[in-house]
Fold:
Amino acid sequence: MKQAVILLNPRLLSFRNKGFAKDRSIRLIIFAAIGISFWAGIFAICYRVLMYFQSVEGLGNMLAYKLLSMILLIFFSLLIFSSILTSLSNLYMSKDLTLIHSLPVPSEKIFLAKWIESTIDSSWMVVVYTIPVFISYGIVFETGPFFYMAIVLTLFPLCIIASALSSIMVLVIVIILPASRIRSVFVFLGLALLVIIYITFRLLRPERLVNPENFASLLGYLNNLSTPSYPLLPSTWAFDSLKAALTGDVSCSLFNVALSMSCAAFLIFSGILIAKAIYFKGFSKSQASMTWLFQHKKERLDKLFSFLSGPTKSFVVKEIKTFLRDQAQWSQIFLIGALIVIYIYNFSVLPIEHSPIKTVYLQNLLSFLNVALAAFVLISVTARFAFPSISIEGSAFWIVRSAPIPIRTFLRIKFFIYLFPLLILSEILIIVTNLLLNVTPFMMYLSIITLFFLTPGVVSLGIGLGAAYPDFNSENPAHTVTGFGGLVFMIISAAYIGAVIVLEAGPVYTIFMSGIRNENLSYFQLLWIIGSFFTAFLISMLAIILPIRFGEKRLVAHSFAGL
Amino acid sequence: MINLINLSKYFGHIKAVDRLNLSVSSGELFGFIGQNGAGKTTTIQMIAGLLAPTEGSVIIDGIDMAKEPEKAKKKIGLIPDRPFLYEKLTGMEFLKFTADLYEVSKEVFLENTEKLLTMFSLIDRAHELIESYSHGMKQRLVMSAALLHEPPLIVVDEPMVGLDPRGIKLVTNLFRSLVAKGTTIFMSTHTLRLAEDVCDRIGIINNGKLIATGTVNELKHTAQIGEADLEEVFFQLTKEEISL
Structure:
């Protein structure tokens, strides 16, 4: 154990040295403020929902318990998902592994140290952001201090179980798959997890909770609410423990905690034994060079981009090839794919016909809000792929600096490479969801045109600010978006989308209402509508042009400063 | 000190090291030379316990690397060609980390750290973050870390990469003095002049096979070259490849 603790020292010391650097204090305060406001927001929403449930006579507690079991199941699925990715990365792909494996430490202790790192990495955020949910349960149910202790006692083994299960799975997969395909594991795991998340959501069918008419009888509805979850699932033990703590049944709660703890301990020891047998073999296999997951036809990309000039074509081809060959990107693509599937699925099950508001109005209102939501999906995808695309050049950035093309062209190449797929993605997203909402043709065209202009603006912000705040030394460039530049990108992009939506909202409402009332628009109204749309267009043009220029200026200064 | 017995390593269908047999005695400075992709780094990684051989075994000071890896690794100080360092640690913190893992006593740690940091001109920057170090400084820090626990065997992959002339001279003298004290050094290099100047014996690897071993004179004899330097011997012995 001592050696495992020593192996964790560099991480702890790095964290300390990183955290106390002087110029980071302001950033830390900003991040803390944002984090706390999210935390408070989750608490407020959950508290309101639970208070609403409590107002439903007879069914209140049952609804609250059903929600709790769903939350814990999702919590457990998310933990498994993030644990698989982090343990694969920490156990087999981390840069320090060559150093660590050359040290006189048994492989099971290396595994233990890396597993502890993975457990913390994969669970801290999920835990931090679900705690307000559990606290709101404690407040609404007016529980004693034992419930809060039960939260810690329940979540701790649940995180351990998820992480231990995931790392055992990863240990075995890496051994089973051919050595040259280790990096492809990311792709397969991503695909499998996409399916798991979708099935979990499909099985839960949360929309049915607020829509009792879908059940054949009241008995069926009640039955659905009170059906116990699968008894062998760790999330069920966590649920039983918290439910017992909510009702004051301490012994039942502790029994379920003990069940979880014993399972966690069993999995840790199994993990260590398995690691002792196969971890080094797997690590040694993973050092082999990769072969292609998909066979590439040589020169196809060169032919496709033959209309471009030599240097431009070379950068375009290099960018596409490196992106497609970086298997870590694939898992992110699948993760985002899963989120988009869930997003679209939610639209397909919206119980619009049960709303007291007139359906046509609601459909169009939702469609308008959908533009904003789709734009926020666009921001997150851009943040994940386009923003780090400059930092991803890493120590190879000298090639760009010494290449016979200006930095501006380099940034424009990046811009167009990310623009086309993101434009296609956002347009598909908006068209599919609008079709599901069955909106009017006017709203459909407006949404399509709005996203047509928003997408290049957001991509340009991603590339421009990614160039303005690069981190060429980052071990994982995808994480640069969590830095100061990423924060600036998020804030400016959100403000930009907010401004466009606000500018369009008034005119859209006027046009829509005049249509419903069958009235003609006045000259003043027409002028106002044209002015608003023109201003939105102007802002979009500025969002496309200015960030790239800003990024170019900063990147050139950065390069010449030799940073 | 080192015994490589029928050592082979395959990466898929590619044979990186092919039935390599080699013995290096204690107190010997052994140079390992070969072209790019010849199998030098793969061999070094197997000696250091970073890669498991597909076939054969690595014996370090009588200890089988496959059976007792921790015990064998304690005997080795590894200096890789592209060292990984924790950039957010200071030089001193990194050395402490290494010392803890090799269970170096506090007294030895303090004594050796000061000696090594002074020798490698890092003493004034020891408490700065590694990310602020130049490439050469990082290389010197890795050497300090490798020597900290006073290993009987030092395995070096391209020792002079990134070092300035003063650094090269320092390392050359250091290697000679360590060998004089009984330390064994297994060094892979592209710098044939260095190998000729400092190594007691040289092994040439080509396409994963050890094609020749011996002193420079013995290699000349093998290559059937009279008065020539190691460069010519190397080209002569690997000429088939070069002519392709």
Observations:
- The radius of gyration of chain A is 26 Å.
- Chain A has two domains: 1-7+42-95+103-217+225-288, 317-563.
- The first helix of chain A runs from residue 2 to 19.
- DSSP finds 19 helices and no strands in chain A.
